Amino acid sequence: MAQSNEWRQWGLKEKIGQLFMCGFPGTEPDEGILSLIRDYGIGGVVYFRRNLKDAAQVAALSERLQQAAGTPLFLSIDQEGGMVVRLEEGVTVMPGAMAQGAADDEKLTFESAKLAAAELRSIGVNMNFAPCLDVNNNPRNPVIGVRSFGEDPAQVARLGTAAVEGFQQGGMVAVAKHFPGHGDTASDSHYELPVVPHDKERLDRVELVPFRKAIERGVDAIMTAHVVFPAFEPDGVPATLSPRILTGLLREKLGFKGVIVTDCMEMNAISETIGVARGAVQAIKAGADIVLVSHRLDRQRAALEAVLEAVHAGEIPESRIDDAVARIMALKEKRGLFAGNGKAPDSAAAAEVARKLSEKAVTLVKGRSELPLPANEPVTVIWTEARAGTEVIEVIAQEWTLGAALSAEGYAVNEVRVGTQPTKEEADSVLASVDGKSGTVVFVSYNAGFSPEQSGLIREISARHGGRFILAAGRTPYDLLENPGVPVYICAYENKPAMMTALAGVLSGRVTATARLPITVGDYPRGS
């Protein structure tokens, strides 16, 4: 393989290739991705769940891709933890950011990131698009939510920096995102172009705080947001394409010397406005070093050719390409990509960190006097499951639900599954199973604030059930806003197995809930 200092002898096409990171459709490298590596010398490949089965398969896939490349590839993944993970089989799924915000333990956050990184590095993955340094201060944010550590900039900075340092000490390239901040949007840049309208003083005091801290502590890379910030960019250009933001703000004002990575250029905020190919040109002109084009081969080729043509035409100076390649190759050498993979850590140690974090994260907001559940009382669990994927969440069947976890605690459990937008038939079935009956009902919600059907069902159960009713938020903690009358409210922040085991422990009394809210939920302020 080429060494990190050989790039200065490369031709223009090879150098431009290093600025691109592309995805492909299957669990084996297809001719499309191999041709991008062979013909263009792309610098990285991004993995999605569509590419991954288990740790052993990922290790073999990573090896095959690296063997096809003349220069080590960045092999990247969105393994944030909690609700956003691409690989679950054979690795430890750590709690997500907001759960870690509730636990508020820097040491455990650092350890979780370090162990997760070492596991991924041992199977060839060397770049993680994490952590999210977005400050989530908008309850209606449809895309960040529990991916953020919370609403307090100082806490996000503190825990986010611990995660960055953990990932990097575990051998991983950490990519802090989404600069300058996607936490106060009410729309999703996967589908449209959001705007954050605040003035510079507010942005400096809130959104920029975690990024400033991460830069001070040496974060490897930062991912841009496809979001418009009029205070920084009066021409309405999204941050990813803005020289004022990427060069003026991030490079010059904040002093970031690492690698700038774009969010995926195929998200509608770019693809349905300026277009992927032209967007790639504009992003590199603005100061981006790596352009992410995750899905379609035709768009990937068009973007590579557009940048090559822009350099030939004099629109992009070759010095801008050289500047980016120098950063990319320096980072590949810094993180040991020329030296191969690392050794996997003790999986039992990683599982123990996940358990501790999960148990520290479960937040009992109201109704403490109703717990623990009596050992001899029957429990009905209403399990809400996402059945349709999004650009962020890739749906999988989940066997270890709260019902399974409560059964393991010794309870007699009847579990009923519904979709995130329960049908009339599902709602009727649930109501028939709880109407007027005694015992406990636990409704594990999933973004109920975005589903009138789900919130309506929660209110109906709360009004009609004759026994104890508990609402456990299985994702966003803001579900209480739609259902303020519930007598017991618990935030779990995610419905992953480790968290469901911890939640069952709180319900049974085996675990004491000590966490504090990392965000404000209606009448319950952050810290309550």
Write a concise synopsis of the structure shown.
The protein has 528 residues and is of the alpha/beta class.
Helix-strand blueprint:
Layout: H1 12-17, E1 20-22, H2 31-40, E2 44-46, H3 55-68, E3 74-77, H4 97-103, H5 106-122, E4 127-128, H6 153-169, E5 173-179, H7 200-205, H8 208-216, E6 221-224, H9 243-253, E7 259-261, H10 268-271, H11 276-286, E8 291-293, H12 297-312, H13 318-334, H14 347-361, E9 363-366, E10 379-385, H15 402-408, E11 413-419, H16 424-434, E12 440-445, H17 452-464, E13 468-473, E14 488-491, H18 497-508
Parallel strand pairs: 1-2, 1-8, 2-3, 3-4, 4-5, 5-6, 6-7, 10-11, 10-12, 12-13, 13-14
Antiparallel strand pairs: 9-14
Structural key phrases:
528 residues, alpha/beta, 8-stranded parallel sheet, 6-stranded mixed sheet, 14 strands, 38% helix
Description:
The chain is of the alpha/beta class and 528 residues long. It has helices at residues 12-17, 31-40, 55-68, 97-103, 106-122, 153-169, 200-205, 208-216, 243-253, 268-271, 276-286, 297-312, 318-334, 347-361, 402-408, 424-434, 452-464, 497-508; strands spanning 20-22, 44-46, 74-77, 127-128, 173-179, 221-224, 259-261, 291-293, 363-366, 379-385, 413-419, 440-445, 468-473, 488-491. It has 18 helices and 14 strands. The chain has an eight-stranded parallel beta sheet with strand order 7-6-5-4-3-2-1-8. It has a six-stranded mixed beta sheet with strand order 9-14-13-12-10-11, with helices on both faces. The N and C termini lie far apart (55 Å).
